[in-house]
Amino acid sequence: MEKFTWVGTFEKISEWLLQYEDNQEYLIQLLKKIGVNKGLDDQDNNGNSFLLQEIDPFSFIALILKHGEEKRNQLIQNLSDLENLNLETPSDYSGVPNVLPLGAWLFAYAKERQNSDIKTLWKLFVAIHRSEELELLFNSALEIKQTAIGKLSQMMFMLFPSKFFPLDGQTEHWLIENNILSAKKKKLWVDYKAVLDELTERFNYSFAELSHRCWFINTYDLNAENLDILLETNYQKISEGTDKIKGFINHSQKQLALEIGVKKNKSAGQNIIDLDNFNIILEHTLDIEISSQWRVVGNSNLSQKNAPNLCGKEVCVFRIKNELHSWNNVLDILDLYDGCNISEEKSFIDDLGIKIDIKKNEEKMVNHPLNQILYGPPGTGKTYATTELAVQIADPVWYASLTVIDIIERHKIIKEKYDDLIKAKQIAFTTFHQSFSYEDFIEGLKAYIPEEEKNIAYKVEDGIFKRIAIAAMKSQGINQSDIGLNQEPTIWKISLGERWETERRKRYFENGQARIGWSNVGDLREDLTEKEQLYYDSLKSNTHSTLNDFSSRMKIGDIVLCLKDQQTIQAIGIVKSDYYYDAIDKDDYAHVRDVNWIAKNISLNILALNNQTNLTLKTVYELYRMSWSNIIEELKKQNIEIDGLTTSEVVVEQNHNYVLVMDEINRGNISKIFGELITLIEDDKRAGKSDARELTLPYSKESFTVPSNLYLIGTMNTADKSLTQLDLALRRRFEFKEIGPDSQILKDMEASQHDVDIPLMLKKMNQRIQYLKGKDYQIGHSYFMPLCSEMDQAEYLQTLRRIFENKIIPLLQEYFFSNLKHIGLVLNDHPDDTDERKIIQDLNLGEDIFGYGQQPKGNPLFAVELNLDCFSDLKRFQQIYK
């Protein structure tokens, strides 16, 4: 059977669309003709509806894809007939992303739409066809309201399936697991392009095949039956095979086989196919050391019919046990065999499958203080240093593997990683200033006008510290590879039916589902009918938010806690699928999520985790006070055993580290900014520590604590305020690291050229400043970094003069504003030099500047002026240190 048949069809539609950039009204009328009945109404500023007048090619195709496969094929057939396109109706949609009907457009209603929005999308579409540079257009498209990286990449993938890959909820987890995506979705072309390049370089699969893989492993459990389906979709099947063994040819034209064993069913007294334990059989040609889980054996089950290249030879067998292995373990084996570069650092060890071997880098790991401040004079690279330090803390494994020595190239690589972690919200950056407040840092009230209302209302808005603290708390104790948690899982309370409906809950647990009611609302992915809309409008606001949370806000990898009563949880599950609607059984609930129920029939008292507060009867809502690590600890305290989670043999994966960088920390009012949280940041006061504390925040009234995997890095300029002037409460709670001028960096980077010794010049100036003013007022080496590029003598002199005129001299003027003659001492004015060679000249104002022969006694410290023209040649700079 031919596979991925949709690819050619949509490539043809993409070519056909090119001619309609200037005739968009025709495209809209065409959508109506082929049968798209909903989703074509625009809205003006008064909320009045009218037929769309303009449309982009991505939204055009999304309006077709928002329907189910049967209706989708009918629309494509109608389009083909009306336009004489001779389109092949796809027999499959493997790898095609889901499109939510309520959000199919990549632009907003006319009342919120910019004139350039749809034009930008057309320009991007045309530029792709012409193979032009895409960065500016792609980034501009992401700024359009209703356009996001997920929707845009999905439709680019559909219209150009060989060029682009969908970056959405289905693919994100797999990309993270394979170290292609650092965390959450990327937002700019440079990030998206890096993902595309990595996929192309590492895998021998098409983007359509990889997209199908992500959907498949998110949807189906690992067992032999499902692996057989995945192999048949992606590889060429050699023959029909048997129940016990099937053969395939991969993209590298290598043969492999799937071997399924049997097990004894004691109750029935017969043997049955064991889908949960099976073998993958490969030729013994892998360029790896065969370790304990591999065995070279004769191939008794193989035959010339199902895998002739393996028959009669020694083969390599990988034993899969689904209680030990995951999809990623199996796919890594298949990818390696197919010639894919799964990872430079991966090695095969013990029965747990494929892991990252980081033992050789253990000596590079450093224990960092939770709270530290880098302090020093201006220009010493404190903010620059926080980039490397933050990366070293947030991703120690990656940092330990970095082997680049060249300073410039190394910092470039680290900065790229830093930017990735910033976008993933694992690192945050803020600058303190005089008006920075508690409301900016922790939480405060924000005024807004609710929809359809005129009066101002207020809502609590989280500050930068609270946001990153919550993210860090959510990530604690997460081992994604074990049970499918995302990096920052949200905890949800859910009620599955009424309390007495035990059979319903039992059925959902057995089927691996979570279902909620209000089925008459219809499929929340589709446009609601008039009847469904009336029913929806009749529901209360609590029900609206429940349906929205369950269908939209809940993510794959989140945690659901099933209610037993208002104080007790009876089951714990991990969300495995996106929302879908299943109304086959009219007596059953129709809104569905697939869930891996990792714990059933337990009785976990929730009060300790929920601030001694009962759970409410609302069907679905977020339990924002909880984290996964807290749940695990509470399970242990209540002696509730869950195999693989609370048993003593389990090794918990190291927490993800989060970093908040606070630049210029001494410029803010520390007491005002930190408030009562100044106590909570202490090591032993943090969550899970010996003297852990929490408090109630004044605006939200939420309980709050600071997690132990949140690191705080501050910087302070000692020329602004010395350590002795710093808030004592802050000084007690932070470790201080001095960052002083480092002339060796300038030497290593060859800042000295044309017989000017820059490191020695900096050293001499700082010795003089320290004597006259103090070490807190020295000059940092970073001011001279522009001199590290190769230049001719004229350019070098011009650059050096600019550094002194725009940076060094103004800084010295600030230091010695009451005695400018000290600047002459720092820059080594020679007493016997002519005035033209001195930086400090006597002020010559004439003999009778006051009139009438008056001559008051002046202050000789003020009777001087700066002579910037003295730096007319390199010899004057050499004089500073000679």
TrEMBL record:
Question: What's an example of a GO molecular-function annotation for this chain?
Answer: ATP binding
Q: From the Swiss-Prot or TrEMBL record, give the protein name.
A: AAA family ATPase
Location of the ATPase dynein-related AAA domain: 645-734
Pfam families xref list: AAA_5 (PF07728)
Organism domain of life: Bacteria
Q: Which SUPFAM superfamilies match?
A: P-loop containing nucleoside triphosphate hydrolases (SSF52540)
Q: Which organism is it from?
A: Acinetobacter sichuanensis
